[in-house]
Design goal:
Elements (H helix, E strand, L loop, with lengths): L7 E2 L5 E5 L4 E6 L10 H15 L6 E6 L10 H6 L3 H21 L4 E5 L3 E2 L2 H6 L3 E5 L3 E3 L13 H9 L1 H9 L4 E2 H6 L5 E3 L4 H14 L4 H11 L5 H15 L3 H7 L4
Family: Belongs to the enoyl-CoA hydratase/isomerase family.
Protein name: Enoyl-CoA hydratase
GO molecular function: enoyl-CoA hydratase activity
Length: 261
């Protein structure tokens, strides 16, 4: 792990991972020649990076980004074609990526996605894992599973309908409807679409706002919202009770509550 602020390759696996002095962890997909497709080494590196972030209390914000023209084209189709046992290969690959996504989902750390290019298939799972998703207006989004005869993975069947609604999700999954970035924003798949030249500034401003907010309150808020999908109302109330008691003892809460003294 590189904590110098530089994004360093994770053992040549196609993932850059760094944590800067502000506590911003950056995960960068670095397989531009393969449209940043998810293969087993990259999936393994994602799991290791998420575990490392989870063990580091200094991390305040996570940024997901990618190099090259594509953000992420989903699973590595060439690896699927080459696999001698495709069923086992897909089971292991999906299971590994799902472990990374589930670990990310449990973190009390806000996640920002900087989407510079097209997103397809399992790449949508990365977008849906982000709490703030900002895309260049030239980006577009598709499920792409039907084109290769596969069913959804990476949480797409669970989170896409929650984000855009069941009917729109089914249009994307069954009809292969591809949407542009402004439409993705209108459908709440992402937060906003911006001109490509403004993407980095917009992402930087979003990160700065999160860093300026109360810690750990904002991270716990995102964790609670995401945990609510798998919790009963009573379980969620219990989690909220425990969490507000914990955040109430934080320095950020003490400083803000002191204004009302």
């Amino acid at each position: 792990m590189d904590e110098t602020g530089e994004s360093a390759p994770a053992g040549g696996a196609g993932l850059g991972f760094g944590i800067d002095e502000r506590g911003v962890a950056t995960l960068t997909l670095q397989r531009p020649d393969a449209a940043n497709a998810l293969n087993q080494p990259l999936a393994d590196a994602l799991v290791a990076a998420v575990r490392s972030i989870g063990a580091n209390d200094a991390v305040r914000v996570i940024v997901l980004r990618a190099e090259g023209r594509f953000f992420c084209a989903g699973g590595d189709v060439k690896a699927m074609v080459a696999a001698s046992d495709r069923g086992t290969m897909l089971d292991v690959l999906a299971g590994t990526i799902h472990e990374a996504l589930a670990g990310l989902d449990r973190l009390a750390v806000p996640v920002v996605a900087a989407i510079q290019g097209p997103v397809a298939g399992g790449g949508l799972g990365l977008v849906l894992a982000a709490d703030v998703a900002i895309a260049a207006d030239a980006a577009h989004f598709s499920t792409a599973y039907a084109g290769v005869g596969l069913s959804p993975d990476c949480g797409v069947s669970a989170l896409l309908p929650k984000a855009v609604g069941m009917r729109r999700a089914l249009r994307m999954l069954l009809d292969g409807e591809r949407i542009d970035a402004p439409t993705a924003a209108a459908w709440d798949l992402i937060d906003r679409a911006v001109p490509g030249g403004e993407l980095e500034a917009e992402v930087g401003a979003a990160v700065d706002r999160l860093l300026a907010g109360p810690y750990p309150g904002l991270g716990e808020a995102r964790r609670l919202v995401r945990a609510s999908y798998a919790s009963s109302y009573g379980e969620q109330l219990d989690d909220e009770r425990r969490t507000i008691a914990r955040t109430g003892t934080s320095d950020a809460a003490a400083a803000r509550l002191a204004r009302f003294a």
